[in-house]
Fold these 4 entries.
Entry 1:
Amino acid sequence: MAARSEPYREGLPIVAEIASGAVLLRDGRILLLHELAEDRWCLPKGHVDPGESLEAAALREIREETGLSDVTLDGELGEVAYRFYEPRRRTNVHKTSVFFLGNTPGGEVRPEPIFDRFEWVPLERAIALARYDTDRTVLERARRRVGARA
């Protein structure tokens, strides 16, 4: 299956996008989704619709990508920014993603079709499985937040 993104290409047009998502905790474990097209583990996140708050977008994306609706957000972990080339649109993308710490007491995970599997993993394992520095950055922020409460 072809990759949905490639390295940034200098000199080509660029569009800005904003996304929102969460590091979702249940029983001390983090939910990771495996994206089939890029063979990578990721956190639930997606585009913020016009007029939508970051929190509402994060909750909607969690529901759409995982089927989980009993979710609470426990504060913002911050934002990360990155850029890449998207072959489908033949353009570069500069994406800013804002992440929250989320909690869920349970429920059946039903991943969207773009994901072939999911796992609830310890935080250290989530950091090890993350392919991109931006995901590791967000997970490290979650570790500091959760550790500060203990």
Entry 2:
Amino acid sequence: MDYNSKRKKLALPEYGRNVQNMVDYLMTIEDRDKRNKSAQSVIDVMGNLYPYLRDVPEFKHKLWDHLAIMADFKLDIDYPYDPPSPDILTEKPGRVPYNQHFIKYRHYGRTMELIIEEAKNFEGEEREIIIEQIANQMKKSYLAWNKDAVEDEKIFKDLEELSRGELVPNESLQLSETKTLLSKPKKVNKKKKK
């Protein structure tokens, strides 16, 4: 019995064993012109596996790169693009540049800090409405991390601290109830009664 586990490992398994066999056959063709034509046929077959991407120019380049990888970079043909070097398979990816922002209160998040900074630009009644909305969102975020009830004064104090004293809520401001913020919205039954 011929099991796949006893066969040669596929360089790019997404193309399957038959395409790999075609690439292996390309390596045995002596005539360079015939090898070039056959390589183009193999590229066409590989493109047929992904017909929705077949005519995209970048995809053609990717197919030729994959052909070089499947041939272990030993296929001597006229590539329409510069073939990749074998080093691309062993090089480590570049470091991902993560944002390194200090977040004072992680349960509120970086976005809330940015919103608070932007809210400082508003004046008058608009500013009061924004402060109320921010405070309610802060309370909701606090409750998402800590299911215990939180006093409105704690939220107001945190808001004032995060805004460096520039956003001070009205003394008469009442935030939404905890159970209202934690409750899930009810599903509306869309079926009409006859």
Entry 3:
Amino acid sequence: MRMLLLGMLFFCISCNKKNLLDVGSPSGVIVSPIVYKSDANAADVLTGLYYIMSSGGPATGELSCTYYGSLSADEFTLSDQDELAQSAYKNALTSANVPLWTQFYNYIFHANAAIEGLSNSTALTLSVKQQLMGEAKFIRGLCYFYLVNFFGKVPLVVSTDYKVNKGLSCADMDAVYIQIATDLEAAQTLLSDQYLEANVTTLTSERLRPTRWAAIALLARVQLFRRNWAAAITAAKTVIDHTSLFDIAPLNEVFLKNSKEAIWQLQPVNGKYTEDGQLFISSLPVYISPSLLQAFEPHDLRKSSWLKSNSREGNPCYPFKYKTSREAKTITEYLMVLRITEQYLIRAEAFVQLGDLAGARADLNVIRHRAGLANTTASTSAELLAAIMHERQVEFFAEWGHRWLDLKRTGTVDAVMERMTTQKGGSWKTYLQLYPIPQSDLLLNTHLKQNVGYE
């Protein structure tokens, strides 16, 4: 009940916020300082944020990074006629209607408010205060990672002071990445290395609160994106080597709740099913694109385990990583946010970049063997990088926009999307790899500048 009430409070505040530029205004104060006089109430602030993330928005469902990232890339064939989905699918977004931006900044506002409340509190148990501070910084780093990769230069909001925030300009991507790394490095020193219950004191097997391992895993990704290869290897290895908690799981167990594959998950709150399961299985707005379907090698078990054909619609395949929707009677699946497989592929790619081809092949083969495939035949650096990108394509489809971000960071987005956007009914231009900044925010803050190419 406490989580529900906190979740409702977050929801009401989010709905009342006008836009990013109002973040931290007096009318948007999230909770009074009295909340930070009690360990239980302070923990509820972050629990409430996880509740909102699990309910929809950027983390899951029809407004998520998964959905819009996959639509923008080459993973889906769209059947839904929703205007915003069609615009993302045809790579034709306009500043009048933009996904992800507002919701991510609302999450950042909650994280900033928590950081300030925790910093000013002298009443909390030290271990509780440290854990919650780590969680808030981890969430802020996570949000900025997706903002900088979907939008490019973005305002760097790190306080709730609306007088400061309303005049912010867009920070360079390097500055945003520095803030992300700073938050994650702080988080890994503050967070527990064991999973904790909602009270942030009792140990649990539920993988629902961020741990030190989640911060390190996300930092490994950040280092990969920043081409800090040695740092990426070090971070990924730290998580991979913690075999008492994490391991490659059988394909049909990967997305189960508390799977050993999971580094961090979110618990469904709207029923016995994930919002992604409901979207892809019941709503059926998309099917797997022919190009993605053809990317699977013969005998790849992911094709039979993570795709399902719809006999009513001429047998096109749809994502089937999550296998329960409204018909579920018990919760068997949690939404996956971070998982161990990514760490192997991060390390493999970084190994190639530093010339350790044997290490890269070994990590790549771990993932291939789980999919029922033989060892890679790639031998040169170029062949191995292509093989790793291929593996990422068929491993992370319909997950958090991985493919969309990979196309951009590897410089292959033009080559792929010039062909795919035409097939989707649009017209590709390079600037479309970044989403536009919402026009409403540009009107209210003249310090912001629209991304190149958009009106």
Entry 4:
Amino acid sequence: MVPDQKKPSYCFDTSSLVQAWTRSYPFDVFPTFWDKMEELVEQGRIVVPDEVERETSRRDDGLQKWIKDKDGLVWKIDEELQESVKEILSDFQFMVKNRPGKNAADPWVVALARITKRIVVTEEIEDDASKNPKIPMVCKHYGIEFKRLLDVIRIEGWKF
């Protein structure tokens, strides 16, 4: 689905989904938060790359099932996305290298946001560590806007 161009669209990192699901807005306490997230998915305004779904598969808390049940949420890997990831990893080879088994989705999140012109949503903190570059640093390099989950809630005007 093509998102409404007048409203912001987002590419979520695993960190923001896990933060929401387990700490900030657990489904059993904030079901309306997840209803609002689902509305954004239905509008085509939220996507995650395949790798985010894979990262959540290591969890047994229902988040991956929520992701899998949302048609249009998971962006399947295609040639354009692969090419963008290759470029990002050639510029930031240590983005995943120094963290084996962790943050494998990071370059995919940035690449997907880059090719679809979406805002990256991540809970990672800005840093300037070239030996361990995180999403905000890479987004800045490519001129990609990034926000935290709370920023999205404010942008969308959600009240609970």
